[in-house]
């Protein structure tokens, strides 16, 4: 790839990935690297951004980047910790802040003749999150902006294309953050906006053709966004040499296996649907511990996939839908080399398909980019907009042991909930939704009869990555209608509750 690219040096901030996503939204390619592992080809980057950090530039745990080859030679934007670092170690001063500097603030002063602040005006809302403050600018520092509480909210270094800001332009609440990144990257650093979904598709298809030649590739489809988009890219590159396997574990949503398989076939994919429901249910018999259920499902999946992969002659590659957040090396709070690299121990014990060479066409993309790439290949928007769904499926939404009957009940309940979310235009406003079948029977009355039946919990959350989540404030009328429909239509359920717990301390799934 010959794209213009931007280097983001990570000091461990929770917002670093958000910076990268904002830069990518500007159609500019960027990479995140740990602050202490500057890539050897740093010359090929057009600009550098220093992230924030949970650490302080004062005291013991200072994170020291080696900026010698970069500082003053390339346009640089230092955010929060980055801004404090440049100040503290270049003739300025950083001290503990007297006032709280978290959350909303407004720029009360802007040096208006600066391209850095083009189209941004006094009063603009910015997001602060820091406990240290810059008391004195570094040598050559020129004040660019202030808020009521923070005098040195933005500065530049005279004679360099180095800019520093105390606030976070990457978060949604900094209303002109996108404009500011645009000003820095496009106007000041002259980075070309050449990273588009179309260019990604063209280059990736070409690269895959070169890499794979006439080799055969096997890929496990899950019905989710990542594996589907990866399959489509590979299909464009190598056509029938891509062998897709879509396994029905019997724990999918109602009609999902048939519907999604038909959809995959309609996309022209060389896909084989394997109904292994009975094998999975058999392996789950008598298991009620969530981790044992997960393990059993994982083991059977590998067995089924391995059996199927063996039926393909001379397969050389395993394709995976790995995305960028899975491969970014994380920075530990102490600044040590904390590379989270996944390794396969015990290689001899791995199933045969896992010994194949691995191809990962999405490993440079964030989730929202995967969707944009899928859309640019005209993939169905329902498929691209689907909620995440866990690999073990309904097994971890049926608390305790599983039976076919319980799976059927939950599939019916889940289908009513999800269909209603779509009908009320709420589906796309929710990050993930589903129903849980509780191991609780309670008394009810239907007509003149006493019932003693199951209780289900509905769960709908908003989130960006599943790490934290909050419950969605669904309209009472929606809940009322959905609850009525479930109790009237699904035999065996006489009570519906709505889960109003956030994560943390709860989790999204109940098991
Ligand atoms: P929790 O319940 O941990 O879920 O808050 C966070 C996200 O991860 C999904 N999840 C799983 N996905 N295998 C998966 O593939 C699993 O065992 C699993 N457990 C949870 C969950 O659906 C949510 O999106």
Automatic annotation (TrEMBL):
Residues 195-386 form the GMPS ATP-PPase domain. GO terms for cellular component: cytosol. It comes from the Bacteria. Keywords: ATP-binding, Glutamine amidotransferase, GMP biosynthesis, Ligase, Nucleotide-binding, Purine biosynthesis. Pathway: Purine metabolism; GMP biosynthesis; GMP from XMP (L-Gln route): step 1/1. It catalyses: XMP + L-glutamine + ATP + H2O = GMP + L-glutamate + AMP + diphosphate + 2 H(+). InterPro entries: Class_I_gatase-like (IPR029062), GATASE (IPR017926), GMP_synth_C (IPR001674), GMP_synth_GATase (IPR004739), GMP_synthase (IPR022955), GMPS_ATP_PPase_dom (IPR025777), NAD/GMP_synthase (IPR022310), Rossmann-like_a/b/a_fold (IPR014729). It is an enzyme of class 6 (ligase). Gene3D superfamilies: 3.30.300.10, 3.40.50.880, HUPs (3.40.50.620). Its EC number is 6.3.5.2. One of its GO terms (molecular function) is ATP binding. Pfam families: GATase, GMP_synt_C, NAD_synthase. ATP binds at residues 222-228. The active site is at 80 (nucleophile), 168, 170. SUPFAM superfamilies: Adenine nucleotide alpha hydrolases-like (SSF52402), Class I glutamine amidotransferase-like (SSF52317), GMP synthetase C-terminal dimerisation domain (SSF54810). NCBIfam families: guaA_Cterm (TIGR00884), guaA_Nterm (TIGR00888), PRK00074.1 (NF000848). Catalyzes the synthesis of GMP from XMP. PANTHER family: GMP SYNTHASE [GLUTAMINE-HYDROLYZING] (PTHR11922:SF2), GMP SYNTHASE-RELATED (PTHR11922). Homodimer. This is GMP synthase [glutamine-hydrolyzing]. The lineage of its organism: Bacteria, Pseudomonadati, Bacteroidota, Flavobacteriia, Flavobacteriales.
